[in-house]
């Protein structure tokens, strides 16, 4: 907040409405406010590894619709083949250790080669930083870790009772790999193995064995938006469902068993939702009876609120495009009618003028004058 205000004061932008609105929604665009969400250390700026750049290697704008799907299927086959090769290397080879350190040996045994490289890089960075104890109260200890020749630092909090550790950089929550600041504390405390709660199964060699659970700590946070919580629940259930049906579809007996179980489960969920909806409706009715006063002789209306009568129309609902086309046709007919009336008026005036001119041409010497003058006497 202070750095933002300093920037506004430096460039005289205190009254800028756009910057004020952008600061109010800073959680939606500033990466620092989303570090607590797991994103596998990916950002929107990684276009070199995005799906868009990968598709461009297989298809172009010149391909027809059928050719696009054929080349896209070739892309999927190549990606699946690369995945099989990576799984084979992960299950048959062991990464080369930079130093024979126990924590590196443990990481090489549980992590895949790619994940081990990330962990090894963070471990190397941990030795190039300074450690300082800031606070030590009861079971909580706070450490300040400062990288070498840098001003910024991070605070690492260790709870000795619960054996939990967290860093202000939020790398583990964002990427799923322990940061160099926490590994610095591990070295200071002589911790030789990575605790199980800080090892994500998706980065291990056994990621495809069994089922993995999504971290639902954010989904249980009541301070978040209800729609966001619902989306997070949907994401977790979809991940579990994909694993479940993929294994069940391998054989006929497991397929039938899972199908019957899912149908019965859907029925149980529907019954539970109906019971909850009926309870909510009853609570809403009872709450409304306390909040509103009903009018005299009116058992269905609420006093002070006008109820609009619902009317059923047999006419077909019209879309926006149809309404616009009808308006255009009506305007076109109106313009044609006005043009025809104007043409008729012009033709009638022209005919009258033509008759007058023709009459003068046929009788040019006819003039209506008075009686002839009297003859003069000789």
Protein described:
The chain has 378 residues and is an alpha+beta fold. The protein contains twelve helices and four strands; from the N terminus they run H-H-H-H-H-H-H-E-E-E-E-H-H-H-H-H. It has a four-stranded antiparallel beta sheet with strand order 1-2-3-4, covered by helices on one side. Strand 3 (154-159) and strand 4 form a beta hairpin.
Number of distinct beta strands: 4
Amino- and carboxy-terminal Cα gap:
127 Å
**Strand percentage:** 5-15%
What strand line-up does the widest sheet have?
1-2-3-4
Note the run of SSEs as H and E: HHHHHHHEEEEHHHHH
* Spans where pLDDT lies below 50 across 5 or more residues: 288-306, 359-370
Largest sheet: 4 strands, antiparallel
Shape: extended
Helix content: 40-55%
Please, what is the average pLDDT? Answer: 77
Judged by helices, strands and strand pairing, the structural class is alpha+beta
Multimerization state: single chain
Radius of gyration: 41 Å
Number of helices: 12
Search tags:
378 residues, 52% helix, alpha+beta
């Amino acid at each position: 907040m202070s750095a933002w205000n300093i920037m506004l004061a430096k460039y005289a932008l205190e009254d800028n409405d756009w910057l004020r609105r952008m600061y109010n929604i800073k959680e939606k665009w500033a990466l620092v406010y989303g570090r607590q969400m797991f994103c596998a250390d990916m950002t929107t700026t990684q276009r070199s590894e995005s799906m868009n750049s990968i598709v461009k290697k297989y298809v172009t704008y010149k391909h027809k619709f059928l050719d696009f799907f054929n080349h896209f299927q070739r892309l999927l086959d190549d990606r699946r083949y690369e995945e099989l090769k990576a799984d084979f290397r992960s299950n048959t080879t062991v990464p080369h250790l930079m130093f024979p350190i126990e924590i590196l040996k443990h990481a090489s045994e549980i992590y895949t080669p790619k994940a081990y490289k990330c962990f090894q890089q963070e471990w190397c960075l941990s030795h190039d930083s300074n450690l300082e104890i800031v606070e030590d109260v009861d079971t909580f200890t706070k450490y300040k870790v400062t990288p070498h020749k840098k001003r910024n630092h991070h605070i690492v909090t260790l709870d000795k009772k619960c054996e939990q550790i967290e860093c202000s950089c939020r790398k583990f929550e964002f990427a799923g790999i322990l940061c160099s600041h926490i590994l610095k504390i591990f070295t200071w405390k002589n911790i030789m193995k990575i605790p199980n709660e800080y090892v994500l199964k998706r980065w291990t060699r056994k990621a495809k064995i069994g089922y993995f659970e999504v971290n639902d700590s954010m989904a249980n946070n009541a301070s978040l938006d209800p729609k966001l919580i619902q989306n997070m629940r949907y994401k977790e259930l979809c991940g579990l469902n994909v694993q479940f049906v993929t294994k069940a579809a391998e054989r006929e007996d497991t397929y039938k068993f899972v199908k019957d179980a899912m149908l019965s489960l859907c029925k149980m969920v529907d019954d539970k939702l109906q019971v909850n909806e009926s309870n909510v409706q009853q609570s809403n009715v009872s709450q409304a009876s306390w909040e509103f006063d009903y009018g005299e002789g009116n058992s269905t209306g609420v006093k002070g609120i006008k109820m609009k009568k619902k009317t059923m129309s047999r006419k077909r609902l019209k879309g926006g495009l149809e309404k616009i086309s009808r308006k255009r046709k009506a305007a076109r007919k109106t313009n044609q009618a006005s043009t025809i009336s104007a043409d008729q008026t012009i033709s009638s005036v022209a005919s009258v003028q033509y008759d007058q001119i023709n009459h003068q041409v046929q009788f040019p010497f006819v003039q209506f004058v008075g009686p002839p003058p009297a003859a003069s006497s000789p």
